[in-house]
Specification:
This protein has about 180 residues and is α+β, with helices and mostly antiparallel strands. About 15% of the residues lie in helices and about 25% in strands. The chain contains three helices and eight strands. The protein has an eight-stranded antiparallel β-sheet with strand order 5-4-3-2-1-8-7-6. The longest helix is centred in the C-terminal third of the chain and has 10 residues. The relative contact order is 0.22.
Length: about 180
């Protein structure tokens, strides 16, 4: 069911300085498990081979009804990967989202996530949202609320554990210069 797993984290100050990363909102992919070769996040990889997202207030990116507006948006500065919806106040570490389903971006360019518009993203965060695990369920958008509840209930724990165990670094920040 979970086709791919990505863990994004706020890098330590030393690593940020080493790689000339100035943004305080940037979260870098430090681990991933992608046995099937999911390609939905390839537009979030820069020329150095680093995959990253910015966690920014959704109101700066998304135009939506205030009741449907998520608190956070995950973007690369050009493309909005997803809003981060956290609806269960008893489980604030769990969230969900999905790619923008519009064929075109607001700037008129083609949306590279359009092909993945029916996918479901489940998120596991820490309290500060300085670490975000992204679980990808292809074609799961229409059942996103059911998958979200299954995540909260622990039904996905075994599969999640398997992805965490086989996760490897996406980019070696320690040795790359």
């Amino acid at each position: 069911m979970i086709e791919a797993y990505f863990r994004f984290e706020l890098l330590r100050a030393r690593l940020k300085a080493q790689h000339s990363i100035k943004s305080k909102a940037r979260l870098d992919c430090v681990a991933y498990s992608n046995p099937s070769g999911y390609t939905g996040l390839t537009d979030f990889v820069n020329g150095k081979g680093q995959m990253f997202i910015y966690k920014i207030p959704a109101r700066e990116v998304i135009k939506s009804n205030r009741k449907r507006l998520a608190e956070w948006s995950l973007t690369n500065g050009k493309i909005n990967l997803s809003s981060l919806y956290i609806e269960d106040v008893d489980f604030p570490e769990y969230g969900y989202g999905y790619p923008n389903a519009n064929r075109l971006l607001s700037n008129g360019n083609s949306n590279p996530l359009f092909f993945f518009r029916n996918d479901c993203y489940l998120f596991i965060t820490n309290k500060e949202i300085s670490s975000i695990e992204v679980l990808v369920i292809p074609e799961g958008r229409n059942l996103v609320n059911a998958y979200y509840q299954r995540l909260i209930d622990g039904d996905l724990d075994k599969e999640l554990h398997s992805h965490r165990e086989r996760a490897k670094p996406f980019f070696d920040y320690e040795s790359a210069t």
